[in-house]
Amino acid sequence: MSTKVIQDQTQEREEHPMEGLLRMDRIPHIWCPTCGIGTTVTALAVALKQLQLDLNDVAVVSGIGCTGRVAGYMKLDSFHTTHGRAIPFALGLHIARPDLKVIVFSGDGDLVSIGGNHLIHTARRNVDITVICVNNFIYAMTGGQVAPTTPITARSSTSPYGNYEHPFNLPLLAASSGAVYVARWTALHIRRLTVAIKEAITKRGFSFVEVIAPCSTLYARLNKLGSGLELMKFYHDNSIIRHGADLKEVDIDYQSKIVVGKFVDIEKPTYLDCLNDAFKKKFGDKYKLYGGGNGDN
Amino acid sequence: MKADPKNVLTGSHYLDGNHASAEGGIAAGCKFFAGYPITPSTEIAERVSRRFPLIGGVFIQMEDELASMAAILGASWGGVKSMSCTSGPGFSLMMENFGLGIMLETPCVLTNVQRGGPSTGLPTLPGQADMMQARWGSHGDYEVIALAPDSPQESFELTIHAFNLSEKYHMPVLVMTDECVGHMTERVVIPPAEEIELVERRYTDKEPGETWPYEPTEGVVSPFLPVGKGYKFHVTGLTHDYRGYPVINAETQETNVRRLIDKVNNHVDEIIWLEEKDVEGAEIVVMAYGISSRVIQPAITKARKEGIKVGQIKMVTVWPFPEKRVRELAGQVKSLIMVEMNYGQVFLEMDRCAAGKCQTYLVGHAGGTVHRPDDIYKTIKEAVK
């Protein structure tokens, strides 16, 4: 084996399997070793490859935070916006160019705390975008503060005696707001996560994928949970796959079982479907369908 | 390029300023409007929501003003002319993403129908007290372009002009109107489409891989990169280099911020739009913008009848401030007077540029009503002493 490795190194460097999808001129990235964001990015990259989409037609929008940096590393038209506002920015982009696949890739603090209002309203409208939410239970970029997803009793830099606020149940929030596709996997369920991302991107309407990911540097350290890799394995090993689970029962307690799976996969007219239907009914032939299937008008 | 006749309601209309603003945006080719209801600006959104379906535009009432501003930026990057409108409290909420628009260099138009503030203030009554917020409301150093219509007719015309400036300079452009202009109904003449000149977005002619979003350029701004065409570009609100990539150091900050400042400062002579009357040989010059530039007329007429040499300058653009012109005038006149519905905002700039070379006066109040001509007249009388 060792001989083979040496031989490989002497040969011309082979293209990294994700080279076409990453901005290699921006590598190394800023993420810590064993952070869960990396595997999630891999899952998205593999999903895009497997879907065989024209990558010119895919755009990524991120907000602020560790996961917010994803837009900067994906070799796609990519927008790194303000804290919490990735979803409305993506909504504008989607309406302007309904022919593109618009993917919002951001973290729990960004999407659910400061951006929570946009999450629920964009789900309510069933805007045809995909949201990938990496949930690491903490504000990592700013140094490990408590988040609306932090489990009760977990420590953070601003809950030094343990969190006492009820956290959000994200799949329940997304589904009850109107999302037509809701799934949750951990960052180590790479194959299942990839399938979920593929389904979410293909789904017409607002799709939401929550990814339970370890924050090695802050959450793991502040709570003495070992290395990021150990925590990633812990989440994986303590997950229970329950497709179509009752979403009232998928809350996440501190270091306990995590229900994962595909929870929602339903059909519902999208925002633009509804807009077109309403105006077609009102104006008849005078109305030209918006989007026209190619976003030219 | 000329306006699309499909979007232009050519003819003579009886419209309020808000409806005229909406028509201006539509005539300019705006096809995406995201807004949130707020008095006294809402009629703009209402008119757009009524007009858009049959001309291929999308109106969306967002969950708040934060989302509205973010959405018009996203749509603009999607290649669609975009607009929003608001008033004081909403303007405050939009400031963060207004800054993103400045940083990403995103063309779009934001109309603020000003009411009295601070806070909820006077929702149904006029003010001009958001002028400094327009200039400095988002954090950081940058330049802005702000226009101030004085009538429904100008609301129509300046909204088109704002779109043109935004496409030329790649930035959000502000139309700072007020409750009075927004709700006054007057004749608005909408010209034939072929008489409306539009600036369309200039896209790069280079191939993907050969160009970057913020390449140094001989022109005012580097050409835009279109989304969905394989350029696979990145833009960020972080300090970035010409590639659009974040680079966190003082050198890149300097280059990035200078770029935002210089593209306006190097073109102030083209951007600044003043309408001067009787300024030649005047002892006193009254400056005003928006509705106040109309309110000053009776006082000036009265003073001139008495033989006082009063000239006037209407600032169609308030930002960038006409620094050079004010410095010049300060050496020639006895007094400069600023009339505005606030306690001295644009006045501060006038006073700074006068630099003690002439007397400066503010006719200001906290808003809620336009000025009484008599207050302006009295100040002219005092200023001539």
Q: Which characteristics define this entry?
A:
heterodimer; A: 297 residues; alpha/beta; Rossmann fold; 8-stranded mixed beta sheet; 11 helices; 36% helix; 15% strand; globular; B: 385 residues; 2 domains; 14 helices; 16 strands
Secondary structure: elements and pairs:
The complex is a heterodimer of chains A (297) and B (385).
Chain A: H1 2-10, H2 37-51, E1 58-62, H3 70-73, E2 77-80, H4 86-96, E3 101-107, H5 108-114, H6 116-124, E4 130-135, H7 170-177, E5 181-186, H8 190-202, E6 207-212, H9 216-222, H10 228-237, E7 239-241, E8 258-265, H11 271-283
Helix pairs in contact in A: 2-8, 5-6, 6-7
Chain B: E1 11-16, H1 17-27, E2 32-35, H2 42-51, E3 58-61, H3 65-77, E4 82-86, H4 88-104, E5 108-116, E6 122-126, H5 131-136, E7 146-147, H6 152-169, E8 172-178, H7 179-183, E9 185-190, E10 234-236, H8 250-265, H9 268-271, E11 274-277, E12 284-288, H10 292-295, H11 297-305, E13 310-315, E14 317-319, H12 323-330, E15 335-340, H13 346-354, E16 359-364, H14 373-384
Parallel strand pairs in B: 2-3, 2-4, 4-5, 5-8, 7-8, 12-13, 12-15, 15-16
Antiparallel strand pairs in B: 1-9, 5-6, 7-14, 11-13
Helix pairs in contact in B: 1-2, 1-6, 3-4, 11-14, 12-13
